Amino acid sequence: MSAADAKVPYRLKLAYGAGAVAYGIKDNGFAVFLLIFYNQVMGLPANLVGLAVMVALVIDAFIDPVIGHLSDRTNTRWGRRHPWLYASILPVGLSWFMLWHPPAWGETAMLVYLTCAAILVRTAIALNEVPSLAMLPEITQDYHERTDVIRYRFLFGWAGGLLLLFLAYGVFLAPTPEQPAGLLRREGYDAYAWAGVILMTVAILTVSLGTHRALARPPAKLPPRLPLAEELKAMRRTLRNPAFLTLMGAGVFAYANQGLNFATSTYMQTYVWEFPGWALAVWPVTLLAGVVMGFVLAPIVSRRWGKKNAAAIMAALAMAIGLAPYVLRLAGLFPANGEPATLPLFLGFATLATGIGVCPMMLTGSMLADVVEDSEIKTGHREEGLFFAGMLFMQKCVTGLGTFAAGSLISAVGFPANAQPGAVDGTVIERLMLLYTLLTAMLVSGAVLVFLRFPLGEADHADRLARLGATRAPPHK
Q1: Which domains does the chain have, with CATH numbers?
Q2: Is the backbone of residue 120 left (phi > 0), alpha (psi -120 to 50) or beta?
Q3: Residue 195: pLDDT above 70?
Q4: What value does the mean pLDDT of the chain take?
Q5: What is the model's pLDDT at position 399?
Q6: Any idea of the CA torsion for 348, 350, 356, 359, to the nearest 10 degrees?
Q7: In whole angstroms, what is the distance from residue 37 CA to residue 178 CA?
Q8: How far apart (Å, rounded) are the C-alpha atoms in residues 296 and 298?
Q9: Burial call 303-334: b when 16+ CB within 10 Å, e when fewer
Q10: Is-contact 252 392, C-beta < 8 A?
Q11: Looking at the predicted structure, is the pLDDT value of residue 406 above 90?
């Protein structure tokens, strides 16, 4: 395959990336607004909201592999993935609207409604996200081009979630003279829900129609259909692939660290750095700027060092930069809270760390596409959907572990309840910074060590394609 053949057109990259907008909006809504909406606006106790979300998360994590497995075995004139993409459009929009429009029922009925709506949203999104992600190995067989393509999903996923976040804070849930607490405006969530429906629908239509011509065709070969017990055994055999298990191991450390960072960010900015309230609104901009930086860096470092080395190096570098403000503060070398340089300096470190830290996530998706051919050689079947669903399963479960670690960390340092910024004992703040630094260093070091054990590289990638007889033209030709 020539270099020219390997290059994927930008229109196809953009269409593929756009599909992640729905996933980004869903993640953002569940993480930021769902608890305060059902607790403060609808009156459901916070612990019951958390219970409903946890139940939905557990069920969703097991649904993903089933959808991936079934999409691998779908055989239609529109191929394996596109029937699932088109079928997800109505359920995604309807379930998202239902989630933000609960009936005025009693506590028990409200809990049941929230649980069912949350399960429906997560399942509907999975109908799009799993088959959509699984198209990557079909879009290109080129080792480095896969990194270039997968980065668009990260960019669009983050941008979609942050766009709706900006609209929510700045328009839908902005304070008004009648309701100074904008986050408690019921009608604001109506507008938020409709905006999500529109953006998600447009995103799924874009990925479906934009990739249809290139990829919507009957598969050349399908895995055999087996009795249920044999299907489950086949799934386990596939997911025991050593290269896949290595990526899962690295992901356990990396996504646990991401969950820890997200869950502690408000504590750190409010109590450690004592930033003003308006600075919290700048945080999403910092994250988006970092993701754009990672979007630019990922293909560069992939070509320079190879995927596994680049993932390890960038993870270690992101850790060093991200922890630098805390190490410097503990050493008495960082500007004091309230000084003019403190906020911009911290945001500078955070932007760099985010940009560099996103690269290993992008490279992991690209490496997972390489696992597909390795598995095909060993099993005789291509099961992209199952592998990408397995990775999503791990991400969802492990990010929750990171959140649990954050809660344990806050409790372990003796952080007071109803704390006021500037009034927390200095020794508590120091313990928080020190333990956070040590825990982050341990998690990232684990990811680095496992990334370096990934067994597949560029040279053996070419050998795998040759053994599989991968001589057909790329799907976009």
Answers
A1: 1-222 (1.20.1250.20), 237-477 (1.20.1250.20)
A2: alpha
A3: yes
A4: 87
A5: 67
A6: -140
A7: 18
A8: 6
A9: eeebbbbbbbbbbbbbbebbbbbbeebeeeeb
A10: no
A11: no
